[in-house]
Write a structure and sequence with these properties.
The chain is of the alpha+beta class and 197 residues long. 33% of the residues lie in helices and 22% in strands. A hairpin with a 5-residue loop joins strand 10 (162-166) and strand 11 (172-177). The two termini are 35 Å apart. Pfam families: SCO1-SenC.
Length: 197
């Protein structure tokens, strides 16, 4: 009887709405301490195919976002490997996308981003590599509650190994350290949950 109660409890817990575990995180706190929610917007970006990328490109999509640069000698290569794995895991779902923003527009031209994209062997509609000037990219990073800055040596940038998960209504639902296996597993579960909503 006790085992039956435990099994029923586990079943109830597993059927609970996961949305409680995925709060909406895209908000600002104003001077009065009030929370103001916002949606992720895009304007003024170009992708690796030299096409304009705007808010319409993320409508009805679940996507993960990150900031990187192609010459990155430190965290970007292992991040890229994890993102390739995630892209492959969701390759058959047209409502999923990865959006990567270069933080090095001086060196990451559209043609460089195109070559970098091709080397991943992931379809362009699944993984978008975005180019804009530094100010525009920094404003976008602000929407994702992150930042970046060049190191003194000029060869690297300070930037995060976290990715943001955004739902079909353009709200941020989670942040995940892509270099930690447990976080990647949680990210995959949360992507699946948002895709099923």
């Amino acid at each position: 009887m006790k085992l039956l109660r435990v099994l029923i409890l586990l079943l109830i817990l597993s059927c609970q709405n996961n949305s409680e575990k995925l709060p909406v995180l895209s908000y600002k706190i104003d001077d009065s301490g009030n929370k103001t929610h916002y949606s992720i917007k895009y304007e003024g970006f170009t992708n690796q195919l030299n096409e304009t990328f705007g808010t319409k490109n993320i409508e009805n999509k679940v996507f993960i976002s990150n900031f990187f640069f192609t010459r990155c000698p430190s965290i970007c290569p292992p991040m890229r490997d994890e993102l390739i794995d995630i892209a492959k895991a969701f390759k058959n779902n047209h409502h999923f996308m990865i959006v990567s923003h270069t933080i090095d527009p001086k060196n990451d031209s559209i043609s460089v981003l195109k070559s970098y994209s091709e080397s991943t062997e992931i379809p362009n509609d699944t993984w978008q590599f975005l180019y804009a000037n530094t100010d525009k990219t920094r404003d976008q990073a602000n929407q994702f509650i992150t930042d970046f800055k060049p190191k003194k040596d000029g060869l690297d940038f300070y930037h995060s190994s976290y990715v943001s998960l955004v739902d079909k209504k353009q709200s941020i639902r989670g942040f995940y350290n892509i270099l930690v296996d447990e976080e990647v597993n949680r990210l995959k579960r949360d992507i699946s949950f948002l895709l099923s909503e």
